[in-house]
């Protein structure tokens, strides 16, 4: 049975005081729901602030991005070792905002995933099609390429710790999530691609695939209930104590139901 992960991506939001209030509220409200994994990925500037608060809780720290070199003359970049040193367990890689605004290619993303794994970080590899690509019937082709290039050259042992996040670009921050049918269809497809890539049924079964894109307390129940959905990567709804905590609560309930099936 795969354990749900509810992952918060705060993106470029939260000054120190706001971050403190948000994380303290989330800790308080989620401690009654211990059976789901929770990750919070704040901006780099408040990693330490948040890390100081989450000690001895079930919440783990994540970074929103990483560079692939270990150290050196790369002004403005942060290495996997530095992220680990700051207390991170997870790192989000290949988010569509990085692909779109910072021109990250599948090759760069592959280097980042490889470097993160080498440093014992858990990469959350984001994939997803644009609306244009979906309209042209290219959804699976695009996803197939993003997964195959993103994971190229990584052996099965290392791959077993990665997490995939399906985030249709057209659903991010729009208030309009993909339908439960679209989500289940893609998640099952991605699991199939991973099965082929690793030649392992077991690996494909165990890898967690999160959904991201306008997930909120109203639609979370039906999204998380889908067979191949193992949690969420949450943007907007993670910036509010009540909405993020209720997503964790919903996940806890759905996970119990799934266990009984
Ligand atoms: O990383 C999170 C995703 O981009 C989803 O963002 P959103 O929940 O604001 O649509």
Automatic annotation (TrEMBL):
This protein's pathway reads: Carbohydrate degradation; glycolysis; D-glyceraldehyde 3-phosphate from glycerone phosphate: step 1/1; Carbohydrate biosynthesis; gluconeogenesis
Q: Which Gene3D superfamilies did the record assign?
A: Aldolase class I
Has keyword Isomerase?
A: yes
Q: What class of enzyme is it?
A: isomerase
GO terms in the biological process aspect are:
gluconeogenesis; glyceraldehyde-3-phosphate biosynthetic process; glycerol catabolic process; glycolytic process
Question: What Pfam families does its record include?
Answer: TIM
Q: Active site annotated at which positions?
A: 95, 167
Q: Name one GO cellular component term.
A: cytosol
Reactions catalysed: D-glyceraldehyde 3-phosphate = dihydroxyacetone phosphate
- Keywords, sorted A to Z: Cytoplasm, Gluconeogenesis, Glycolysis, Isomerase
From the record, what ranges are coiled-coil? none
Q: Which GO terms describe its molecular function?
A: triose-phosphate isomerase activity
List its EC numbers. Answer: 5.3.1.1
* Binding-site positions, substrate: 9-11, 173, 214, 235-236
Q: Where is the protein localized?
A: Cytoplasm
In the record, the note on similarity to other proteins reads: Belongs to the triosephosphate isomerase family.
Assembly and partners are described as: Homodimer.
What NCBIfam families does the entry give? Answer: tim (TIGR00419)
Cited function: Involved in the gluconeogenesis. Catalyzes stereospecifically the conversion of dihydroxyacetone phosphate (DHAP) to D-glyceraldehyde-3-phosphate (G3P).
| Protein name per its UniProtKB record | Triosephosphate isomerase
* Natural source organism: Atribacter laminatus
What gene does the UniProt entry assign to this protein? pgk/tpi
């Amino acid at each position: 049975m795969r354990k749900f992960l509810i992952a918060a991506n705060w993106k470029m939001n939260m000054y120190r005081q706001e971050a403190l209030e948000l994380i303290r509220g989330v800790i308080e409200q989620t401690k009654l729901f211990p059976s789901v994994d929770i990750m919070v990925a704040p901006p780099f500037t408040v990693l330490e602030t948040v890390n100081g608060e989450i000690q001895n809780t079930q919440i783990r720290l994540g970074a929103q991005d990483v560079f692939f070199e270990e150290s050196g003359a790369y002004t403005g970049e942060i290495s996997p070792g530095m992220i680990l040193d700051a207390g991170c367990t997870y790192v989000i890689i290949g988010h569509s905002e990085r692909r779109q605004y910072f021109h990250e290619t599948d090759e760069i993303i592959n280097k980042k995933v490889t470097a993160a794994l080498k440093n014992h970080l858990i990469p959350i590899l984001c994939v997803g099609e644009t609306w244009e690509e979906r309209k042209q019937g290219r959804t699976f082709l695009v996803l197939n390429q993003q997964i195959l290039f993103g994971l190229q050259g990584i052996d099965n042992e290392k791959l077993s710790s990665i997490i995939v996040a399906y985030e249709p670009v057209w659903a991010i921050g729009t208030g309009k999530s993909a339908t439960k049918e679209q989500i289940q269809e893609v998640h099952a497809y991605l699991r199939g691609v991973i099965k082929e890539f690793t030649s392992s049924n077991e690996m494909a079964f165990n890898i967690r695939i999160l959904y991201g894109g306008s997930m909120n307390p109203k639609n979370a129940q039906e999204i998380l209930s889908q067979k191949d959905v193992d949690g969420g990567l949450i943007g907007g709804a993670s910036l509010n104590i009540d909405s993020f905590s209720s997503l964790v609560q919903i996940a806890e309930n759905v996970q119990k139901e799934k266990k009984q099936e």
